[in-house]
Design goal:
Layout (H helix, E strand, L loop, with lengths): L1 H19 L36 E5 L2 E5 L2 H6 L3 E5 L54 E5 L2 E5 L2 H6 L3 E5 L5
Antiparallel strand pairs: 1-2, 1-3, 4-5, 4-6
């Protein structure tokens, strides 16, 4: 009978250190402990889909101003909307860089003294270069003897053409 008692005790002495080394793992990895899910990782935002509506807004991010065609476009690029319409510069030109205000990188500005072969052209009005909508309302326009159909009047004027008739040009 004594040998029967010793057998289970021996078995218990052998199994006790082995079983005490076993722990329960929640399977969640590092964190506050078992039973808690891991913290959510920040996920990239899905691409924002915006309409092509033209309702310009001025956006600001990190002190930088930029004009967007609509509020959705500004927000999708991470800008805060600070006003309706195009952004306005508080300084109309660049006094530190003489020349055309719309092209401060041109040395000498209008008249291009560095290029005598390109004098001022007072007969050519300066092009507005504004932003046009994507509206399709075709017009026929001309510049000199060249006639061309444009999707709308704004596109024609921005290309330096004069509108001569609504609709497509006749060939």
């Amino acid at each position: 009978m004594l040998t029967g008692l010793l057998q289970p005790k021996r078995l218990a002495l052998i199994l006790l250190p082995l079983l005490s080394a076993c722990t329960v793992d929640g399977g969640y990895g590092p964190g506050p402990g078992p039973g808690f899910p891991p913290p959510d990782r920040p996920r990239p935002r899905p691409p924002q889909m915006c309409t092509m509506e033209y309702a310009p807004v001025c956006g600001e991010r990190g002190g930088r101003l930029q004009t967007f065609s609509n509020a959705c476009q500004a927000r999708a690029n991470g800008f805060d909307i600070i006003g309706r319409g195009e952004c306005r510069s508080s300084i109309p030109g660049r006094p530190d860089r003489p020349g055309r205000p719309d092209r401060p990188d041109w040395p000498g500005g209008p008249g291009r003294p560095d290029r005598p072969d390109r004098p001022d052209r007072p007969d050519r009005p300066e092009r507005p270069g504004g932003i046009c909508t994507r509206e399709y309302n075709p017009v026929c326009a001309e510049r000199g003897r060249q006639q061309q159909t444009f999707p709308n009047a704004c596109e024609a004027r921005n290309s330096g053409f004069r509108i001569v008739a609504p609709g497509e040009c006749r060939r």
